[in-house]
Write a structure and sequence with these properties.
Layout lengths: L8 E3 L3 E3 L1 H21 L8 H21 L1 H6 L1 H17 L18 H22 L1 H6 L6 H36 L4 H32 L2
Length: 220
């Protein structure tokens, strides 16, 4: 979980591939297959799969539009939408029997290295979006007497996002593991049901905070 993962394979003798990386490859492969299957056969009267994906995209669009406004919500959906889906799938993958117990596949968000990676990617995206929205406004944001505090705040944001996500998922897995040893029948099932809601909340909180930080950068 929070411990360093044992490499499953090593590429070129220098790149270690862990169970978390394999899980991410699986997510990307599934997403690519579904996207190709839907986009190659788009219909005016959508089938079940296309209809389901359209409902999901519309729900995400409305969610981020409520934070950023309709125009900016759709403009930055290309990043915020996949970010939400990745975190949600990563969280839910920990509920699959056997995931986490084997070194070959593990829930990505149960690893601090993965959540820190997400935090770094989020940080870079926020800075790039701020510059793209207006370099003058972006620089003006830092031209204050308390610029050291502002710089520290910008560095703390991705770190807090990463640690919050990791801590919650790691804590959930730890509680479930301990409950399983204490009450192997009944308690783990109840916890898994609660985890379905808990994992979704963590994905919502992460992307909602990211969208809120983004709003600070792009507002006029």
């Amino acid at each position: 979980m929070g411990e360093a993962s044992e490499p499953v394979i090593r590429i070129f003798g220098i790149l270690d591939v862990t169970g978390e990386v394999i899980a991410m490859w699986v997510f990307l492969a599934v997403a690519a297959v579904i996207s190709l299957a839907v986009t190659r056969r788009l219909k005016e009267r959508p089938g079940k799969l296309q209809n389901l994906l359209e409902i999901a995209v519309e729900a995400l669009d409305n969610f981020f539009a409520g934070i950023l406004g309709p125009e900016n919500g759709r403009r930055y959906l290309f990043f915020l939408g996949p970010l939400f889906c990745f975190i949600l799938l990563s969280n839910y993958s920990g509920l699959v029997p056997g995931v986490g117990l084997s070194k070959y596949i593990k829930a990505p968000t149960s690893s601090l290295s993965v959540t820190l990676g997400l935090g770094i990617v989020t940080f870079i995206f926020l800075q790039a979006a701020g510059v793209h929205a207006g370099a003058k406004h972006y620089l003006k944001h830092f031209l204050t007497p308390v610029v050291p505090l502002l710089l520290l705040d910008e560095l703390i944001k991705p770190a807090s996002l990463a640690l919050r996500l990791f801590g919650n998922i790691f804590g959930e897995e730890t509680v479930m593991e301990n409950l399983y040893h204490l009450l192997p029948i009944g308690a783990p099932i109840i916890m898994m049901v609660l985890s379905l809601l808990f994992c979704a909340i963590q994905a919502i909180v992460y992307t909602m905070l990211t969208a809120s930080y983004l709003q600070e950068f792009i507002e006029e």
